[in-house]
Design brief:
287 residues; alpha/beta; five-stranded mixed sheet
């Protein structure tokens, strides 16, 4: 039996796999070694059912922030819990590439709370444009969409009625919004949490500007920004693109045409989660 983990800053999805089939699936809080201490990581991993710990031949952990030197924190915690297993810790970007393309080449993209991309040659990542986080980058991500939405909402590019509906639904005031973005931890997660409201109001029109000024148009522009800053610089029109992440999945009817019709990159597929692709990938590996 092997254990595969897909971890972001919000949650970790654990799958116990035998003969290519998921036998058990568990969700725990997210693990990001850049922002978490060893004790915090150990606490999450120690909470896994100990009955599984002795039965793993290999553990494959793919996570946000799993880059040197932070990767060592996760390796140590996993080795302590799964003492008889081979431990493999890799970035969530490599996990996305393997899930999307297997052993074929392509441009792998993550669009969730944050965003990231890489060029993958079928075995390894050969190029990566740094995402730079939700303040300086993360174009097209949930945090990016939330920021653009709030900008339009409070700068009177959207209707007063929509602003009042938003504040009431989220039980917020303008002061609360400023506090959550500038003073409270997890501003990126707060911004991304606005995506369900954005998705529900995609056809709402602006009271200012042209007929194109709908929330849907703003979302389209955000995805164009994603391509302009994170895909075009690779200059690899010969490769297909693939997307993983909750935002990519829930806004796929906007993302897909931006990719294929506006940016002219063929889309291999859009997945909400990399887990099934990772199960396929590792089921043909030596375990």
């Amino acid at each position: 039996m092997i254990l595969i983990a897909d971890s972001g800053s919000t949650k970790t999805d654990w799958a116990f796999v035998e003969n290519g089939e998921i036998k058990e699936r568990i969700e725990t809080p997210g693990i990001n070694p850049v922002h978490m201490s060893e004790s915090q990581i150990n606490e999450i991993i120690d909470a896994l059912d100990s009955s599984f710990s002795a039965n793993q031949s290999s553990v494959y952990f793919y996570g946000a922030g799993c880059i040197p030197p932070y990767i060592n924190k996760v390796e140590k915690a996993l080795a302590s819990q799964f003492s008889d297993a081979e431990i493999h810790v890799e970035s969530d970007m490599l996990g996305a590439a393997r899930a999307l393309f297997g052993h074929e080449a392509g441009i792998a993209c993550i669009i969730g709370t944050g965003s990231n991309t890489c060029v993958y040659d079928g075995e390894k990542i050969t190029d990566n444009i740094p995402p730079m986080g939700y303040i300086l980058g993360d174009e097209g991500s949930g945090a990016y969409l939330g920021r653009v939405f709030l900008q339009h909402l409070f700068k009177r590019q959207l209707s007063d009625q929509l602003r009042e509906e938003f504040l009431q639904e989220y039980n917020l005031t303008y002061a609360d919004v400023i506090d959550k973005v500038y003073r409270q931890p997890g501003a990126n997660r707060f911004l991304a949490s606005l995506c369900p409201f954005i998705r529900k109001h995609m056809d709402d029109s602006s009271e200012v500007g042209t007929d194109e000024s709908t929330i849907g148009f703003f979302v389209q522009c955000a995805f164009e920004d994603f391509f302009n800053f994170n895909i075009y610089p690779y200059d690899r029109k010969d490769l297909p693109v693939g997307f993983i992440g909750s935002v990519a999945w829930h806004f796929r009817e906007y993302l897909n045409p931006v990719s294929e019709n506006i940016m002219e990159y063929p889309v291999k597929e859009i997945q909400q989660s990399p887990m099934q692709g990772l199960v396929r990938f590792h089921s043909v590996q030596k375990t």
